[in-house]
What does this fold into?
Amino acid sequence: MKKRGALCIFLLAVAVLVLFGTTWAATSAKPLELKFSHWMSPMHSLHTDVFSPWAKDVEEKTNGRVKITIYPGEALGKAKDHYELAVNGISDISYIIQGYTPGRFPLSAAIELPFMVSSAKVGSQALWELYPKYLKSEYPGVKVITLWTHGPGHVHMTNKLVKSLEDIKGIRLRSPGPQQTLILKEFGASPLTIPMPELYNALQRGMADGAVAPFSVLSDIKLYELMRHHTVANLYVMAMGIVMNQKVWDSLPPDIQKIMDELSGARLAEIAGKSYDHADQVGREAAKKVGAEIYSLPPSEMKRWADRIIPLNEKWVKDMEAKGLPGAKILADAQSLCQKYSK
It folds into this structure.
């Protein structure tokens, strides 16, 4: 009996050691460390609502096997270089705005054509649905984690309220990208290329009269302090997204890839869209608190603006078709999807 008891104690001890050793190995294994680069402030809504929670979700769902460290504020490179940062492995993951590298993502710009997107959530859902059908070939060297848009851009002014096409002629407006520059030129404005972090100083010094941008920028960089006249026009949105170095993605174990896919794609696009819509509301409220004018173009004037840029849309389609790209098809699908998600 004593021998049998001793054997049982010995076997139990071995089992405990094996269990402890397995648990220790699982918890002490070095995690896969990934660098995530963006150029926003760590206080920006994208960082707090999208990037940081997504990184935390990945770490938790993989039981600590993946750790994502975020580098904000251009710590790893300039905003315009973030796609290349991911392709070249300087960052493992990058936040990108497609319009910052004009001509590189021609079909992705379909969602940016004017007067089509009513909210960031709508634009984000539509853009992600366009991706598998039309856009995959535009993103070589990376795994696309997700794509989305910000909320509609409007006209924000320091000293003058824009109420008509005639009011916009000759004014100096900061333009966020090439497509928006074409729109502003068609309206008779003078578009300016000013990096968003430099816009506050440009307005303060009188170098610009205003900007076309979503309401979110008013609170993001305190532009409500300078801009007191806002015209709701739903002019445009910009495409953006998160991409990952393809080789790094391919090196991940299949189960980790599966987890990351489940946390990304349409799910993350919707989260990003909702974040921007909320940020737009925060910006509106900031404008109201300082007594700013917020004016919505009436339908008749909105139609005048939309009619003016019909030739730009037609030219965009022709340019795409001349390159052998399905411009007419993706534009029709984009319009249909935006209508679908607006319901």
The chain has two domains: 30-149+239-278, 154-236+282-311. The chain is about 50% helix and 15% strand.
